[in-house]
Amino acid sequence: METMNGNDVLKMYGTMEEEVYEFQQVDLPAAHCFCSKVEFNGKKDTLFFNDGIRRIDFILVYEDEDKKEMIVKTYFSSCMGMELEATRSVVDEKLMFLKIHMSWDVLCTYAEVLHIKVPIQPNDLSCRPSLWNYVSWVTKPFYPNEDLIRKEAEYFTAPFEKDRLEYFYIKDKDLFFTPSMRSRMAYYILCRAPYEIRGNIKKFGITKLLDGGVYKAAYPLHDSRFNVKSTEEDCPNERYLLFQEWAHPKSFYKMQPLDLIRKYYGEKIGIYFAWLGFYTIMLTVAAVVGLGCFIYGYKTQETSTWSKEVCDPDIGGQIVMCPQCDKHCKYWRLNSTCEASKKLCIFDNFGTLVFAVFMSVWVTLFLEFWKRYQAELEYEWDTVEFLEQEEPPRPEYEAKCIYEQKNPVTGVKEKVPYSTCGRCILFISLCHNFQIMLIIASVVAITIYRLAAFFAFSTTLRTEDLKELEPLKEYVTPQMATSVTASLINFVVIMILNMLYERVAIWITDFELPRTRTEYENSLTLKMFLFQFVNYYSSCFYIAFAKGKAVGYPGQPVYLLGKYRNEECDPGGCLIELTTQLSIIMGGKAIWNNIQEVLLPWLKNLYARHCSGQSIATDKGCPRWEQDYHLQSISKIGLFYEYLEMVIQFGFVTLFVASFPLAPALALVNNLFEIRVDAWKITTQFRRMVPEKASTIGAWQPILQGIAILAVATNAMIIAFTSDMIPRLVYYWSFSVYPYGQKYSHTMEGYINSSLSIFNISDFPEQSRPLSPTYNITTCRYRDFRYPPGHTREYEFTVYYWHVVAAKMAFIIVVEHIVYFTKFVLSYLIPDVPYAVKEQIKREKYLTQVILHETNLKLVTKRLKSPEDEITEGTIDHLSAEEGDFD
């Protein structure tokens, strides 16, 4: 085997990689140039080369062509220490599978490069007693089978150092580095190995070769089939165990084996499922409280004074309401909204106020407890002092570099693209503005539809001549029919715009040319979330804070675009419409996403197997690496869409929960499916992902914190402006004489009559005068607080109106300050890192200092002692002895 000195490697890689390879001044074997091709030995589940000794750490797939063969040879001539073995495909003779093995010396070298933390000694700190230990027999059925997935031993760890092997806890060299560690190191080398050097221009990295079509795939191996346990020796069958105890539908009630997930897929995948599982557990508490609030509203809908008065033939049946559109709309009786009023009482009651405050506190507890749990995982998964390496430029970035600029990290001049020019920034800003205008246009279009649909439903559902609509009229109001149809149309528009936004956001981010993958993901995350935020929530914000707020009164209505009369709320408010909107969008989104996540990968794999003939080849003994090749490749942005889906759901659960207390329960049910669907998808339908380090959920954490802060304001404003809660409270606690001479003390009787103003039908302007007969009535009622006709301040706002406005503003200020203060106190009282974890971190640092540093410090001190020092010490000792004899 040919050897290559570290200095030669540095010359070949150039100064750009000097920081990475500066401590590799040792002889390492170069890759085979080029390895010989071997025939498949027939062991379809093997994880080793044909010799059965060297483990397969990575797989590359390419077509056996002369042109590509030369590039492959050149590329691997620079990959230090990789041992290669090529095998032809069982299905397609053109395909070659290149198996890569990392030797022990190479693993040790790159473990030091990547600062991989490995065991130095078993954890000797005793566990603190917990109440859960005494009830473990109750929770045991909800955990994975301990006989199959055993709890891993706990160790104190330290960053690996090649020159101090004797201080690390090494039992077996073949098992010391886990398969995920080995794959990560192999991928690290492949991403930095050059394949073409022309003067000062270097082309390197497996990602660019994949984009150019030189390689068709690059992936680590699954260790077994997901549904059949491997009988091969040294096969841990971790994929099989994950499917049985995690991804299988029968295990939906079990806790997730997070340590095994992290061990098999890496910390980045593990932290996502840890966050999703923690979020789901916390949702259980919110769902129980929300369900209790819903049951309370359901039980009290028949006894509510407000709904009783609406349904009473002698009260609501005698109140004639003004038409809510021009000319063709008719007068209608208030008791026609009886059923809608009862449904409104389910969601608009005093329990909703308590639940909104509870959810504001719940959000704080969720984020604070997640920080603590995340700190525990950081310690257990050795990411406490995770140092991200200087990432190489993305191939797309490197291809468009035309200017030179000094790298502030390495101090070396590098090529930079044109993306910082003013014209590019202006173009990107215009693209963002176009997206915002498109969103606004969609909201306006839905609003116009609502106005037109309300006009149509008002003229149809309130036509007394159509007897066949009588059963429908009892349960469906024009407002409800308009809300349901508009919500369905809005959901379809949202799904269509999502596909457009996704492509535009990716296109804009590609145009920006972020230098590294992390910068690319952060930029895309911000764009996609902002687009999705406006897309999903714009209609909800419209109903909650715009609809019915500027409608004027029947004699002087307000028009949109000078043509469409603004939409009014039901006499009970717009809360029921907001509830309908949320339930349709949340439910539809959850169903659509789950179907899409299950069906699309399954259909793609089914089609691929059918076209490639792999199903036939499997019966003949298709090898492990070829079975994995026919699975779906993971997206370049990993679990981005899974995070985005859950964060949007988190917004629905927190931002508008005051109008829909069942939102946490729906989210809980969806997440129970989501965990298993995501687990099934990555375990059975996708190739094994390259393990990546991650200590947190990244850019999503500040987004969640922003949503939590915004949720307090939105829920307070929903209760104040969308719900009818504040006007009722003002009426209940009022001792003053209000419109029409009524005076009530701590009672809700007469509230309906008080909340509806009087309009003289003779005051209708000609352009809005109803064409329907008046049935000998002279006045009609409308929802507002205005003086009646004939008053000195006719149709102006009453004193009661200003009292209600003042009460709403006071409610918002008081509630926000109380909740924000509570959030601040909870954040201060709950430490981000548990005390036990702090102790373990201190103990680990101490052991690292003692074992790896102080011992070597003594050796260095001993070696630095000069012979003169030894002679001097001997002379002093001799003289001291003589003085003692003389005395």
TrEMBL record:
InterPro entries: Anoct_dimer (IPR032394), Anoctamin (IPR007632), Anoctamin_TM (IPR049452). This is Anoctamin. It comes from the Eukaryota. It holds the Pfam family Anoctamin. GO terms for biological process: calcium activated phosphatidylcholine scrambling; calcium activated phosphatidylserine scrambling. GO terms for cellular component: plasma membrane. Residues 261-844 form the Anoctamin transmembrane domain. One of its GO terms (molecular function) is chloride channel activity. The chain crosses the membrane at residues 272-298, 350-370, 436-460, 480-501, 524-545, 647-673, 694-721, 800-821. It is found in: Cell membrane; Membrane. It is a multi-pass membrane protein. Its main location: membrane. Keywords: Cell membrane, Glycoprotein, Membrane, Transmembrane, Transmembrane helix. Belongs to the anoctamin family. Residues 48-258 form the Anoctamin dimerisation domain.
